Amino acid sequence: MTATEIGQSTGVPAVDQLVLWSVALVAIAGLVTLAVRVIRIVRRAAARVDEFVDDWQGVPSRPGVPERPGVMTRLGRIEGRITSMEHELRPNSGHSLRDAVDRVDRRTRTLAPDTPDTPDT
């Protein structure tokens, strides 16, 4: 077909109608296919966002499924554990791990005092 022939009719009205409807049908099918793909992509993205929000906020327990705490609750638990460990690393009334290590160090020094390193000759 040359450029001058594009848009010209075949001379048979039924064929012209069939070509017109075929082009319209193909265009509509293409748009529907594109829309379906876009909808799938949006649904997947929405599902991922929904999962993220559930992980962030937490999910209450339901029959057969245990509770999943949210990020802030888990961070609070971690901070509580760190605080309790920090308590063990500071000297206090003699009950911390640090106090026990200091006692062992004092006893060891009385048994074997530190001597300066002497170079081998």
Task: Describe the structure concisely.
The chain is mainly α and 121 residues long. The protein has helices at residues 13-57, 71-89, 97-111, and strands spanning 58-59, 68-69. The model has no long low-confidence stretch (mean pLDDT 85).
Description of the molecule:
The model has no long low-confidence stretch (mean pLDDT 85). The chain has helices spanning 13-57, 71-89, 97-111; strands at residues 58-59, 68-69. It is mainly α and 121 residues long. It has a two-stranded antiparallel ribbon with strand order 1-2. Strand 1 (58-59) and strand 2 form a beta hairpin. The protein is elongated, with a radius of gyration of 39 Å. It has 3 helices and 2 strands, in the order H-E-E-H-H. The chain has 2 domains: 14-60; 69-112, no CATH class.
- Helix and strand succession? HEEHH
The share of residues in helices is 55-70%
Class from secondary-structure proportions? mainly alpha
Strand arrangement across the biggest beta sheet: 1-2
Biggest sheet character: 2 strands, antiparallel
Helix count from the secondary structure assignment: 3
N-to-C terminal Cα separation, in Å?
Answer: 103 Å
**Overall residue-averaged pLDDT value:** 85
Q: Supply Rg.
A: 39 Å
Number of domains: 2
Q: Could you tell me the strand content as a percent range?
A: under 5%
